[in-house]
Design a protein that fits this description.
UDP-galactose 4-epimerase, domain 1, 3-stranded mixed β-sheet, about 20% strand, 7-stranded parallel β-sheet, binds nicotinamide-adenine-dinucleotide, alpha/beta, about 300 residues, Rossmann fold, 2 domains, 14 strands
C-alpha cells in the first residue's frame, strides 16, 4: 500500500512511537490520532494532525475516530507495561483491539498495522524468526499481544482485511518514558549520581532499535508486504546488555557511579532475559537497519539528556 495521499488513523498517536509515526506520515497524508493521553501527550503531536481525545475501549470513541473513509489504521494504543503482571492488562489490551477491529469491520475499513512485541516468543532460541513455534509468552503483556495478533489473523483471513503485524524489539528515542531502562537510569542518576541500582544481574541482553529506524521499517513493510496477514520482526542484528546500557548512560552523563545489582537473572516476573529477533524476513523485503543496538542506545541517551 502506497503511503501517500491516504487518510490514516493512528491509535495511541500521542504516545512515544505513535507521535514519531504521525510526524512521518503527516508529510504526505491526512493523519488523525485517537488517544486518551493516559501516557501520551497531545503536545507531542505534530501540526496538522487532528486529535480525537478519548478512551478507545468506548465504541462511540472508536466510531468517531474510525470513519468509513479511513484507508488504514495504525493501532498502537495499549498498556505496554511489560512488568505489570496483572490479568486486567490482558483484558484491557484485547478489549482495545476488539473495539478497533469491530468498528473497522462495521465501517468497511480494510487495512490495519499493529504493534506487537518480541514478548510473544517467550524464552525462545535466538535469533528468533517469525515462524518460530510454539509461541509461549511468559508475561501477561506478551500473552495480550499474542491474543491480539490471533484476532487480527481472523479478520485478515476471514473478513477481507489486510494486516501488518510488527513484533518490536525494544524501541528507544526521544519521548521514551521512565518505565524503560534508558530513561530509568537517567532518572536514577539525576537523583543520586554516585550509585545506580540495576534490576537483575545486569547480564540481560536485548536488541534495541531507534524509533526513527522503527518508523522507517514500519512504513517500508506496509508499502511492500502484500499478503492478507503479514508478520515482521523489527529490530537490530545486535544486542546490548543492561550493564552496557548503564556504562553508556554513565559515560554520556560524565559520571562514574557504583552499580548495585538487585540480583537474579531477570528484572521482574515475566522478563525475558535474552532477546534477539531474526530480521532476515525484513532484509529480504529490502530493509536493513543502519544502526547497531549499542548505537541506538547511545543516540537515544543523548536525545533524552538533551530533553528532545
Ligand atoms: N516502546 C517499545 O519498546 C515497544 C516494544 C514493543 C511493543 N510496543 C508497542 O508499541 C505500541 C506503542 O508503544 P509506545 O512505546 O509508543 O507506548 P506509549 O505508552 O507511549 O503509547 C501508547 C499510547 O496509547 C494511549 N492509550 C492507552 N490506552 C488508551 C485508550 N484506552 N484509549 C486511547 N488511547 C490509549 C496512551 O495514552 C499512549 O499515548 C504499544 O502497543 C506497545 O505495546 C512498544
Amino acid at each position: 500500500m502506497d503511503l501517500t495521499g491516504k487518510r490514516i488513523l493512528v491509535t495511541g498517536g500521542a504516545g512515544f512511537v505513535g507521535s514519531h509515526l504521525c510526524a512521518r506520515l503527516v508529510e504526505d497524508n491526512e493523519v488523525r490520532a485517537v488517544d486518551d493521553c493516559s501516557t501520551g501527550d497531545p503536545s507531542w503531536l505534530p501540526g496538522g494532525v487532528e486529535l480525537v481525545d478519548g478512551d478507545l475501549t468506548d465504541p462511540d470513541v472508536a466510531a468517531e475516530a474510525i470513519t468509513p473513509d479511513t484507508d488504514v489504521v495504525f493501532h498502537f494504543a495499549a498498556d505496554k507495561d511489560a512488568a505489570r503482571d496483572d490479568i486486567d492488562q490482558y483484558r484491557f489490551n484485547n478489549r482495545l483491539t476488539e473495539t478497533v477491529l469491530d468498528r473497522m469491520d462495521e465501517a468497511g475499513v480494510e487495512n490495519i498495522a499493529f504493534t506487537s512485541s518480541s514478548t510473544v516468543y517467550g524464552e525462545a532460541p535466538r535469533p528468533t524468526p517469525e515462524d518460530y513455534a510454539p509461541l509461549e509468552p511468559i508475561s501477561i503483556y506478551g500473552a495480550s499481544k499474542l491474543g491480539e495478533e490471533s484476532l487480527l489473523s481472523v479478520y485478515a483471513n476471514s473478513h477481507d482485511m489486510t494486516a501488518w503485524v510488527f513484533r518490536f524489539a525494544n524501541i528507544v528515542g526521544p519521548r521514551l518514558q521512565k518505565g524503560a531502562v534508558v530513561p530509568d537510569f537517567i532518572h536514577k542518576l539525576r537523583e543520586d549520581p554516585s550509585t545506580l541500582e540495576i534490576l537483575g544481574d545486569g547480564r540481560q541482553e536485548k536488541s534495541y532499535m531507534h524509533v526513527s529506524e522503527c518508523v522507517d521499517a514500519m512504513c517500508h513493510v506496509v508499502e511492500n508486504a502484500t499478503r492478507p496477514f503479514n508478520v515482521y520482526n523489527l529490530g537490530t542484528r545486535t544486542t546490548t546488555s543492561v550493564t552496557t546500557i548503564a556504562d553508556i548512560v554513565s559515560e554520556e552523563m560524565e559520571l562514574d557511579p557504583t552499580y548495585e545489582y538487585t540480583g537474579g537473572d531477570r528484572g521482574w516476573v515475566g522478563d525475558v532475559p535474552r532477546m534477539r529477533l531474526s530480521i532476515e524476513k525484513l532484509a529480504a523485503l529490502g530493509w536493513e537497519p543502519d544502526q547497531s543496538s549499542d548505537d541506538a542506545v547511545r543516540q537515544a541517551t543523548r536525545e533524552l539528556l538533551d530533553g528532545d
